[in-house]
Amino acid sequence: MTTQSTIPSPRSPYVRRKTTRGNFELYSWVFMRGSGVVLLVLIFGHLWTNLMVGDGVHAIDFGFVGGKWASPFWQIWDLLMLWLAMIHGTNGVRTIVNDYAQRDTTRMVLKGLLYLAFTVVVVLGTLVIFTFEPCPPDAPANLLPSFCPTI
Predict the structure, then answer these.
(1) 20 to 30 A Cα–Cα from 111, which one of 51, 68, 76, 142?
(2) Is the whole-model pTM more than 0.70?
């Protein structure tokens, strides 16, 4: 009985395995680089506005957030920061799960939990950004922040 070696000869030509994933991993890699650069701008703009302008960290309270989110510019800014950070982080954790989870079932469960967490955070964060109302119309005046108009 002859045994065949499972390791190819060092002089044999490299045979590339065909994958069915297409260029997804390439696009994922490019996205990580692009989103990282955009996130740097968004995060440092966010930090500069919140910490360096005005009274700094001492000015951040409910009224500050309410006043900031009254502007569509800051709503879009924070929405982009939320979505890009979540997609960027989810893609990074997905790569780690693919690299280190050895069993298909483990990989599937971990990625399922990851995508569920991503969905919950993005949906709730988006709802908070666009439905935040610091001055609800029927609220008692003593519970409203000082910047709300009294009627």
Answers:
(1) 76
(2) yes
40: number of Cβ within 10 Å: 10
pLDDT at 16: 65
What average pLDDT does the chain have? Answer: 87
Q: What is the DSSP letter of 70?
A: T
119 close to 90: Cβ distance less than 8 angstroms: no
Q: Say how many CA atoms lie within 13 Å of 9 toward its Cβ.
A: 4
Taking the C-alpha atoms of residue 146 and residue 151, their distance in angstroms, rounded to an integer, is: 13
pLDDT of residue 67: 82
Residue 129 near residue 82, CB atoms below 8 Å: yes
Domains (range + CATH), the chain:
25-134 (1.20.1300.10)
- What the block records as the tokens of 25 is 């991993």
The secondary structure of residue 142, as a DSSP letter, is G
